[in-house]
Amino acid sequence: MRLVREKIILGIDPGTTFMGYGVLKIADNKPSLMAMGIIDLRKYGDHYLKLRRIFERVSGIIESYLPDEMAIEAPFYGKNVQSMLKLGRAQGVAMAAALRRDIPITEYAPLKIKMSITGNGQASKEQVSDMLQRLLHIPKEELLPQLDATDGLAAAYCHFLQMGRPHLENAYHDWKDFIAKNPGKVKGG
Q1: How far apart are CA 161 and CA 114, in angstroms?
Q2: What is the residue extent of each domain of the chain?
Q3: pTM of the predicted protein model
Q4: 70 and 10 in contact (C-beta within 8 Å)?
Q5: Whose CA is closest to 156, among 6, 10, 3, 7?
Q6: HSE value, Cβ hemisphere, 13 Å, CA-based, for 75
Q7: Nearest CA to 26 among 144, 113, 136, 122?
Q8: Among 3.30.420.10, 3.50.50.60, 3.40.50.970, 2.60.40.10, what is the CATH number of 6-185?
Q9: What is the pLDDT of residue 75?
């Protein structure tokens, strides 16, 4: 594993009710918690207002912590197409906030994140939270009741664990890179 002197990773757990985030600082290849929290979207009835709020808050988090990279949980496929569409939009808006600042993004499947944190791809949110609490020495009183926060932190921690691996196929370095890797998803690109 190559030694990383210092790096800040923003992890995002996309959601349309709560969007979780966690910020890790890596110094001398050791992770430490900088921040974690949620973006509470319950008071916004209109989906487009939720998307605007996600963009504003993720942009604010980026301005506050100046992450070098973003790790985001990829949406899993569910039966409800409308829910998937809304979740995908929320994820896309969070990604746009990072891309606007030329922050490389890596997507991780929920199974990959759970597996990297707990060793079990079917682990519960509580198990992921408990393991992160131990790994990062987080006092119990600093944990939020919404497990979306530790899910966002889990994405960042998963990315930290993957950093020594040479190639991440879903990493985007800027808009041109995104378009080049996704020609069928972009109109006029």
Answers
A1: 12
A2: 6-185
A3: 0.84
A4: yes
A5: 10
A6: 22
A7: 136
A8: 3.30.420.10
A9: 79
Are 12 and 38 a contacting pair, CB within 8 Å?
A: no
For residue 102, count CB atoms less than 10 angstroms from its CB and return exposed for 0-12, middle for 13-18, buried for 19 or more.
exposed
47-54 contacts: CB < 8 A, separation 24 or more?
47/16, 47/86, 47/89, 50/16, 50/90, 51/89, 51/90, 51/93, 54/19, 54/90, 54/93, 54/94, 54/97
Encoded tokens for 90: 């929320």
Angle, helix 148-162 to helix 125-136, in steps of 10 degrees:
60
State pLDDT tens for residues 92-103. 999 999 999 999
pLDDT digits (tens, 9 = 90+) for 38-72: 999 999 999 999 999 999 999 999 999 999 999 99
Contact 178, 106 (CB under 8 A): no
Give me the active site residues, please.
13, 73, 148
**Hey, how many other C-beta atoms are within 10 angstroms of the C-beta on 182?**
12
> What are 22's strand-pairing partners?
11, 36
